[in-house]
Amino acid sequence: ATERKALFLFFGGTGDLAYRKLYPSLFNLYQKGNLRSHFAVIGTSRQAMDDDKFRAAVRKSLADSGNRADSKEVSDFSSHFYYQAHDVTNTAHYSVLKEAAEKLDKKYKLEGNRIFYLSMAPQFFGTIAQDLKSQGLMSTNKDAFNRLVIEKPFGRDYDSAKQLNDALSKSFDEEQIFRIDHYLGKEMIQNIEALRFGNTLVESLWNNRYIDNIQVTLSEKLGVEERASYYDNSGALRDMVQNHIMQIVSLLAMEQPVAFTDTDIRAEKVKALRSLRVYNVADAATNFVRGQYGSINDQPDYRHEDNVPEDSTTETFVAGKLLFDNYRWSGTPFYVRTGKMLADKFTRVDVVFKRPLVDIFAFPQSQNTPLAANVLTIFVEPHAGFSLQLNAKTNDAGFSTEPIKLDYLVDAEKSKETPEPYERLLHDVLKGDGTNFSSWPEVSYAWKFVDQIRRVWDLQEPQFPNYTPHSMGPAAAEELIQRDHREWIYRL
Length: 492
Ligand code: BG6
Known about the structure:
The protein is of the alpha/beta class. It folds into two domains: 146 residues, Rossmann fold (3-Layer(aba) Sandwich); 299 residues, Dihydrodipicolinate Reductase, domain 2, CATH 3.30.360.10. The protein contains 16 helices and 14 strands. Strands 8-9-10-7-11-12-13-14 form an eight-stranded mixed sheet, with helices on both faces. α5 packs parallel to α6 and α10 packs across α11. The longest helix is centred in the C-terminal third of the chain and has 20 residues. The chain is globular and about 85 Å long. The relative contact order is 0.13. The site of 6-O-phosphono-beta-D-glucopyranose has 2 residues, from loops.
């Protein structure tokens, strides 16, 4: 492994994400040798704490994610961690950080490389980015890099996202900004490109002549848990559709990139998103439906979860139809759905092919059931793999057909070695590879699409709750697809 040299500054360094995902991911990179002796971490937050206590918390986070907290490797790793209490709105505090950064840079010979990671309340993102520059935190060494990693949410509509982006742009160029969408760090999401552009069999059929529709399902079993203060202001459309679903759809819909580089891939994703039809009011109302979970047994309905107002109209479920106005996809809809408190926790993509134009097995005397559609399923999580449904002859003396499946599932042992999304994404930041991050044009087109739906929804009082926990959402999600004489491939 190539060793990367950098100083990490984590804003929100004592937060849940840092302890649960970021530090364990850095440790994995350390074990693999991508980080060795030339790295240091400064964690910041408002609370007071010394380095020892911070290091102990880091070691505990590694133990919680299955490492041996008392090993020499863990203590060597944690010795690179430093803590600095920091009020992000107090400009004077940045000079203290600057001094700490310079000291560590010398001590660990980091060559001026800096990664600023913002994982805290989004209203501070702009201020921090500006103070990092104005207070001299960014390295001025011309061979060094300064990179800004930014967690979701990136705005709550196009206007606020634009405002945020303008603020960041005052200090960082687009290539220095890494907007996290952790779905892009998932093995099987990255595999979409291999499946499509590595196989003639797949890519030559990947269009409206052969594909009837594509279905993307991000299903969650849990409810809102402890995150209501965030979630109730967001809802499923902003929380899952604007980012994760739009990213997956653009990977499925894009044209072949000139080369497998971040610039080329982004260009194709943006082009795809530009041809996504932005709905007018009437079409937004018919092509998107929402839901909110009701109660069952001991499970309270969404409106009675902790910190949710009793009259909340926040959606915990969305289903919709997306249409691309381009040569490849015109006439082939993409159906998407996501929700909390559904039947199971999984992510999958079902590519439904058209049936043969003529079913020669359906001659008048035949008892044969009509040919099934070919379906190519991409299993993203919890199991990774592909499945291809074909029609074959039944194994007997007569002549009938039945659907059979060619399955490829990554085995459990191998799955354990799959890097966590955050490990991959942090490694990409160290390498300066923006492939698996959302660029500003992608984010902005996604917001413009989503804003239209939000606009319509905000005009009407929904009839909530409207779905039973552990189902696959409200009846409206069924009607949405049945109206087009189709059905969801995954059903209960
Ligand atoms: C996050 C959303 O982006 O993704 C959460 O904010 C959601 O609401 C989560 O639960 C799902 O991610 P994963 O990786 O568990 O499918």
